[in-house]
Amino acid sequence: MNDGVPVAERLRRLLPGLWAGFLLCVAAVATPAAFALLQRAEAGRVVARVLGQEAYVSLALGLLLLMLERVAARDAAEAGRGSQFSAGMGLAAAALFCTVAGYFGVQPMMDAARAGQGSLSFGQLHAISSAFFGLKLLLVIALAWRAAGAARTFSPASSS
């Protein structure tokens, strides 16, 4: 069935929900399961691996969604329906920031804290990292919520 909705628009609507589901699975299924089944040290290694993979997937999805949101904002601005910058772009950029700061910024400091180095304890850094992950999850849920609303308001005639 061809309803005239471009593939990029379909992806812009679909990907935030998939990303949110992925983050929820990591937070609510994978991480608790590892600690429920494995010794603490082994579970920590498994979770570190899962979170590393999540960070790279989040980078890819975040960049793709930022580009898709940019195209949608540009199209809306050209049609006189908005600005070159959209709330969706802001949400995607903020989620990307949370990924970079939380994993690529804090994670190396956590490794140092385990070795007794640095000014913050492992627990403090873990709390900071968890806060970035939680904020990212909320931002992606907001992006998914907006995308679901966009599905009702999209008009193929307005995108040409």
How would you characterize the overall build of this protein?
The protein has helices at residues 7-37, 40-78, 87-114, 122-153. The protein contains 4 helices and no strands. The protein is mostly helical and 160 residues long. It is elongated. The model has no long low-confidence stretch (mean pLDDT 90). The protein has one domain (7-150).
Which characteristics define this entry?
160 residues, mainly alpha, 81% helix
The beta-strand count equals 0
Beginning-to-end CA distance, first to last residue? 19 Å
Outline the low-pLDDT stretches.
Answer: none
> What is the number of domains?
1
Count of helical segments?
A: 4
Shape: elongated
Sum this structure up briefly.
The protein is mostly helical. The protein has helices at residues 7-37, 40-78, 87-114, 122-153. The protein is elongated.
Topology:
Blueprint: H1 7-37, H2 40-78, H3 87-114, H4 122-153
Helix pairs in contact: 1-2, 1-4, 2-3, 3-4
